[in-house]
Amino acid sequence: MPNDPKDDDEARRWNYHPGEVRNNPLFDWPPNPLGVLKWYAGFWLEASTTTLCFALAMIAWYLVLPPLETMATPAPGWILTLWLCNLVPHCVAAGGLHWWLIGSEGQGRDLKYDKRDQARSGNFTFGSQLWDNVFWTVVSGVTLWTAFQVLVFWAMANGWAPLIYIGDNPILFVAWFLLIPMWSSFHFYWVHRLLHWPPLYRLAHSLHHRNVNVGPWSGISMHPVEHLLFYTNFLIHLVIPGNPLHLMFHGYVQSTHPVFSHSGFDKVVLGDTAEVRAGVFFHQLHHRYFECNYGTVEFPWDRWFGSYHDGTTEATERTRRTKARMHGESSAR
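Below the sequence we write its predicted structure tokens.
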């Protein structure tokens, strides 16, 4: 591997290549406690998708949604309110990012991974990548995201799911906010590997993979079958004690974070100096090369199971050989 991946031939395939692809240092050996602290500080002590998800959860649960006891009986009122709590911030985030990064080209192509524009072709619903992504996000994604949360809220309200409040166990209550992104990553890796099983890929996951050059609306643009698998993530709250605030945070982590990670830009640039982390090159590599980086940077599953793409030409060639074996394609593609 080269000392600097930006000097590798692979970098020339991209408009912007961020360099080394890194995982959460929590799993490094020998241990790297300072690296771990910096990693989590970057998510919790500065503006990030994690702090945005936390703020949205606080607003939704404490200012908008009704008390938990109201949810003991399914009713259109609170279900519609929950759907709107998911829909509105998601559309604002995805729509706002799309407008700034793609619609108005607010920062041009600065820090954009893929030099290409969004696609218009018959491969997409309505012949447009944007409207295809909006349709599947809203009609299937937000709806099934809400449906799974309705199930868990209903179970919590009826005493069928274990509840915890901050006064009961403050350590576990706070720890859940750190653990939810890790659980989400763990679940995503295994569901994602399943979705690359050829029959499921053809049935469902291929719809998401039409987005080779991803954009903010691509995040949860998926086939309903994929959404059904994707949102089983929430069922952990039927087993491990949690709180409605955790469930709302979990929903935004699972669904709003992909808006940014699929933005196609490494950072959002506001003004001359302000930059906010957005895209995840680790996952951008997956969308271009398919059979690599099935997980997220939170867990080193891809390192452990040999599907890790570190952004180099060597990794690209290895991934192409893997894809050829799996799908009977020419490795030169």
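The mean pLDDT is 93.
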